[in-house]
Amino acid sequence: MGEIPYKGLGMVIITVLVSLALLIYIGADYSESRIKNRVSHGNSTDVWWERSFILVCPLH
Predict the structure, then answer these.
(1) Which residues fall within 8 angstroms of residue 19, CB to CB, at 6 or more apart?
(2) Is residue 13 part of a domain?
(3) Higher confidence at residue 2 or residue 35?
(4) What is the value of pTM for the model shown?
């Protein structure tokens, strides 16, 4: 009971990292679809968070 819970801390860290990766991937996909939708309607206004998601995501 007096030892450091390495397994539990590792699982928490892995969960946080996977959650961040999914947030970035899904956010970039959503941003990309919003940008395409706006361009198809003739509006070229950029939103900073959309470009940031696309810039950060290595798959988009």
Answers:
(1) none
(2) no
(3) 35
(4) 0.78
Separation between Cα atoms, residue 30 and residue 20, nearest integer Å: 15
- Nearest partner of 47 among 27, 18, 26, 21, judged by Cα: 27
**pLDDT at 1 (0 to 100):** 60
Q: Which domain holds residue 30?
A: 20-60
Residue 49 lies in a domain: yes
d(CA 32, CA 40): 12
Our count of domains for the chain comes to 1
- The percent of residues in the chain predicted with pLDDT above 90, rounded, is 70
Where residue 41 falls (left for φ over 0; alpha for ψ -120 to 50; beta otherwise) is: alpha
